[in-house]
Amino acid sequence: NTISDIYSTVVVGSDQVWRPAMTQEFALAYFLSFLAPTCRRISYAASFGVDYWQTKNLYTSTDDIKKELSKFHSVSVREDSGVKICNDVFGVQATHVLDPTLLIGREFFESIINQSGVETASKKEIVFYKLDVDDRFKRQVDNLCEHFNYSAENIYYKQVDNKYYFNSVSTWLKSLRDSKIIISDSFHCICFAILFEKEFIYYPNKDRGMSRLESLLGQLGLKSRICNNLEQFKNYQSEINYIDVNHKLNELRKTSLSFLSSALKN
Predict the structure, then answer these.
(1) Which residue in 59, 121, 165, 207 has the most C-beta neighbors within 10 A?
(2) Which strand (E) or helix (H) includes residue 124?
(3) Is 0.85 surpassed by the pTM of this model?
(4) What is the DSSP letter of 77?
(5) Mean pLDDT score of the chain, rounded to an integer?
(6) How confident is the model over 193-207, as pLDDT tens digits?
(7) How far apart are CA 142 and CA 150, in angstroms?
(8) Distance between alpha carbon 146 and the CA centroid of its chain, in Å?
(9) Rounded CA separation 40/36 (Å)
(10) What phi and psi, each to the nearest 5 degrees, are found at residue 260?
């Protein structure tokens, strides 16, 4: 049996699945090219990763991808720039929805922490999860620690000699939940900072794509949390108003769930 024989509907999403630089020779598969015409195609929060159609490392033609995308029953994307790409490049109407981590909410991830029984996690006030750490960033973190009289920990990995050790998912989540300040250039790390209602700093990383987080933080009124220099954070006078943020999140959840429900039923 093929997938099309087993399932009536297949959903693709979300993190950079439509970014050819990532998917390379498998790009068409992420537009569900392997499905029969009888199988319904839906995208939920598909992301292009950047705010333009990235043809670098494109192993197939844009026209071939446009042909596959035209077969979709319903299209939703994770960024407002993705809506524009779908319209301008592919002639497809798309809906802007929340990332699945924000859609399902905090309770689900609390259950992962609790079910794991994990006890050992970072007890540092500042935790950082940065994909590319350089000396400038380290100096800024040290200065921030001195300013607040806090200690900091890298929760991405630990390096001992030439070996890298990574946290389990539950330990990583607990470290985020139990911290006071989160610093990251990772989209999903910032999502969890928001879910756990933490003070956070988004440290932009242009090489990895900034549109994903700029779009989300714009929706939630949190663009002030974008800092190219951690020194800026010392001057913040107020904490994040999570009553307001959660109100906006709940409205976005309603819209996102409505899209998904309609796409699956109609």
Answers:
(1) 121
(2) none
(3) yes
(4) E
(5) 91
(6) 999 999 999 988 776
(7) 9
(8) 30
(9) 9
(10) -65, -45
First to last CA, the chain: 26
Average pLDDT over residues 12-34: 93
| Residue 79 burial by Cβ neighbours in a 10 Å radius (0-12, 13-18, 19+) | buried
CA 73 to each of CA 33, 42, 76, 146: distance values in angstroms, whole numbers, following the listed order: 14, 6, 10, 54
CA 111 to the chain's CA centroid: 20
Strands 181-184 and 199-202: parallel
Ordered alpha helix ranges (H), 105-232: 106-116, 135-148, 169-177, 187-195, 211-219
Q: What pLDDT digit, counting tens, does each position of 91-128 carry?
A: 999 999 999 999 999 999 999 999 988 876 677 899 99
Write out pLDDT tens, residues 45-73: 999 988 899 887 788 999 999 999 999 99
